[in-house]
Design a protein that fits this description.
21 strands, 26 helices, 5-stranded antiparallel sheet, 763 residues
């Protein structure tokens, strides 16, 4: 009698999980107990199933999924004397219906696994469960049947009375066996078959007895099958096992687990061959169905990410590789010749063909699909995805082409062959073309647009992950260009995008690690050349890319929202430095700038804490508001309403100067200057480049003269940036510009640099 397995302490698991597991085990035991041959009572049998149910549940939720535990559960069921085929069918039904229900999301409080992933795992567990059950049952049955069959055949040489009894036992086993049994001579002529084998081949015994073993060749035979058979009939091996298909009389295929053994006489001379055949056709069909469900999208029926990656990895294999198995088919005569001649090679077939040398991939994402989901609901969105999938499927009908759904509204198409440079572009055009026809949903018509990233190249040069990443980057490039188009991958653009992504992900911790620092560029009075102030310019000392200028990371900081804490840090560090300069100036150790200019990004302008943060920094550090100038780009204030200008007005009323940076690049109306709370115009360098040499560009002189006159008429100071030559500085001084900055005076540098510059001015 089998002893029930010990039940673990329920306290070892979260509240409720053990009860759900017990309910699953109860349902399982009630389903299969009538089909068992165990001596246990049903409650005892339920206790025996409980640890097996736990193994299934744990496998369902393993971080790295492995179906092997389910294989062992199937074998354990056979060990518990559940050998009736109905026990397997009922067990699979219980696992399919109740494993995810009782052991799915409730056993995964973190919600790491989606329902679709749990169902896919459950299907693979059923597959492994059935395989383990069948293997254990087959090994148990084959061991018993083969031993009996050997005993029966060996008894033929015994005495007459013993021979009669032996033959009776042999025929009882031979005819009553649940697996097919056949006996043939060494030439392959079939001598005896039982009823089970006859039924397996269609029920006509003479069609089986009249055959020769060598005639049962099938195109899907493994290459080594007939080599092992030749070795067996020559006496070089005692037996072999393999999975082999056979053609039935009606042309259908019978899949079997085949065991062939060599029977010798008392002197050890080979006499007969004994074949045991287990019909695995239904199990194979089940495996194919489970495989299909695991590799195809449940909504659209397209291949899913798993199958697509399998195909992509094969397409990306080095071009010199060939298919390992080659062509499996051969003629019956060729196979027969191999058997009779004792050839050691496998069944001859055609030479394997080389893999395609190139590949092309289209990565498509629908434009604006979220708006459809939000407005019509997910049900309508699903119907649209099904229609889109059908249309895309119609585009990939040529050999070597496939379409798959990666998830959501993302689809991929793959083409292989020697001329994918042209074919992949044609495929992308067809995909956009079929999407152009409106889709009708709930009485309304919607035009679907898509953005496609194309990657094309030679096999063996990139991994599947690299290709898909490049296609994804390229797709977003097409989307940012307006969508409803395709773009080809560009290695340099990919590298820039990867770098941007790396910088974006490392930005949040860069400020914490102290990787940012500030350089200062002096602002000089054009009238006398003395230092008037300094502009604070933030830099990023990146551990990999070196020192990065603001144009490399400020847009990323604005996109991620980090610009607000970064801007606050820059403001505080700059104000502290200005305060330090003023203290040194009062002590007579420094004749440096009295004010500091700090840039504000558009995102900072919209932040509600701008005024409060600025006031807090000035008060804590002790810097007068008049010593701070905040620079705002002209483009940020084009069309600005009063809500946006209000914080700037408040700061200006406190005494903080507001400078309009890059003036002249935003095409703003000059009349708007009257309503902006600015006190300084920073003239863009494009207006002064014509003044770098003598004679100066007369048009530039007139433009700058007019701007300076207008600014002074509005009581605004004028600062010019980008001064690079002495001639340029002299022209600007004569035109009446107030201050300037540029490489002519000094490049941005550490605060100590201004000590030297200021002392030189003082001398």
């Amino acid at each position: 009698m089998m002893v029930p397995a010990e039940v673990p302490d329920a306290a070892a698991e979260p509240d409720g999980l053990e009860d759900r597991l017990r309910r699953f085990a109860t349902i399982w035991s009630r389903a299969i107990f009538p089909a068992t041959a165990t001596s246990l009572t049903r409650p005892e049998f339920e206790q025996h199933l409980l640890p097996l149910a736990r193994r299934l549940r744990d496998a369902l939720h393993d971080t790295i999924f492995d179906a092997a535990p389910a294989h062992g559960v199937g074998a354990a069921l056979v060990a518990a004397h559940c050998t009736d085929p109905d026990a397997l069918a009922r067990s699979l039904g219980v696992v399919d219906a109740y494993l995810v229900l009782y052991c799915g999301a409730a056993a995964d409080p973190a919600g790491d696994l989606a329902a679709e992933e749990l169902r896919a795992r459950c299907a693979r567990l059923q597959h492994a469960f059935a395989a383990g059950f069948a293997q254990a049952l087959r090994e148990r049955t084959l061991a018993e049947q083969e031993a009996i069959a050997r005993s029966a055949l060996a008894a033929r040489g015994a005495a007459e009375d013993a021979l009669h009894a032996t033959e009776a036992r042999f025929h009882a086993v031979f005819e009553g066996a649940a697996i097919g049994i056949g006996i043939a001579d060494l030439d392959g002529h079939v001598l005896e078959v039982n009823d089970t084998l006859t039924r397996m081949f269609g029920g006509l015994e003479h069609h089986v007895r009249s055959r020769n073993v060598s005639e049962w060749v099938h195109p899907d035979d493994a290459p080594h099958v007939w080599r092992m058979y030749s070795e067996l009939i020559r006496g070089e091996r005692e037996n072999f096992r393999t999975e082999k298909p056979f053609f039935r009389n009606d042309g259908t295929v019978l899949w079997t687990n085949l065991t062939v053994s060599l029977l010798r006489d008392a002197d050890g001379v080979p006499q007969y061959q004994l074949a045991l055949l287990e019909d695995t056709t239904e199990r194979r069909l089940l495996n194919l169905r489970l495989r299909y469900e695991a590799t195809h999208d449940a909504l659209t029926g397209l291949p899913n990410r798993t199958l697509f990656f399998e195909r992509l990895e094969k397409a990306l294999a080095p071009a010199q590789e060939t298919a390992k198995d080659g062509a499996k088919g051969s003629t019956k005569d060729g196979a027969k010749a191999n058997v009779k001649d004792g050839a050691k090679g496998g069944v001859k077939g055609a030479a394997p063909a080389s893999r395609p040398a190139r590949f092309g991939l289209c990565y498509l994402d629908l434009d604006g699909f979220k708006a459809i989901n939000d407005s019509l609901g997910h049900s309508a969105g699903d119907r649209m995805l099904v229609e889109v999938a059908d249309r895309l499927q119609s585009c990939a009908t040529a050999p070597g082409e496939m379409v798959a759904r990666l998830g959501g509204d993302e689809f991929v198409a793959l083409t292989t062959g020697p001329d994918t440079r042209r074919e992949v572009g044609d495929l992308a055009s067809r995909m956009l073309g079929v999407l152009a026809t409106p889709i009708s949903l709930d009485g309304r018509e919607f035009t679907v647009r898509g953005s496609i990233g194309i990657v094309e190249g030679k096999a063996g040069e990139s991994t599947a992950a690299e290709v898909l990443r490049s296609a994804d980057i390229t797709m977003y490039r097409a989307k940012s260009a307006g969508g409803n188009r395709f773009e080809h991958a560009d290695a340099e653009a990919d590298a820039r995008a990867i770098t941007r992504h790396g910088l974006t992900t490392s930005l949040p911790t860069a400020l914490e690690r102290g990787e940012f620092f500030i350089e200062y560029q002096p602002l000089v009075h054009l009238a006398d050349g003395t230092v008037h102030g300094a502009e604070a310019l933030v830099r990023w000392s990146h551990p990999t890319h070196g020192v990065l200028s603001p144009d490399r990371f400020i847009p990323l900081a604005e996109h991620t929202g980090l610009i607000v804490p970064l801007g606050r840090w820059v403001l505080e560090q700059s104000v502290r430095q200005a305060r330090l300069w003023q203290e040194e100036l009062a002590a007579g150790t420094f004749a440096g700038p009295l004010r500091i200019n700090v840039n504000l990004s558009p995102a900072q302008l919209h932040h509600p804490g701008l005024v409060a943060d600025t006031v807090d920094v000035l008060e804590r550090v002790g810097l007068p508001p008049g010593s701070l100038c905040l620079e705002v780009t002209e483009s940020a204030l084009i069309g600005a309403d009063e809500d946006l200008l209000k914080p700037l007005r408040q700061l200006a009323e406190m005494g903080v100067d507001i400078a309009l940076d890059d003036f002249g690049t935003g095409y703003s109306n000059l009349a708007n200057l009257r309503r902006l709370p600015v006190s300084v115009l920073k003239l863009d360098r494009s207006f002064t480049q014509g003044m770098q040499q003598h004679p100066a560009d007369p048009v530039d002189l007139k433009i700058v003269e007019g701007i300076v006159s207008l600014a002074h008429g509005l009581e605004l100071a004028v600062t010019v940036e980008g001064v690079e030559t002495g001639a340029q500085a002299e022209h600007l001084r004569r035109l009446g510009c107030d201050t300037a900055q540029g490489w002519y005076y000094a490049r941005p540098g550490p605060p100590e640099m201004l000590h030297t510059l200021s002392m030189a001015d003082a001398v």
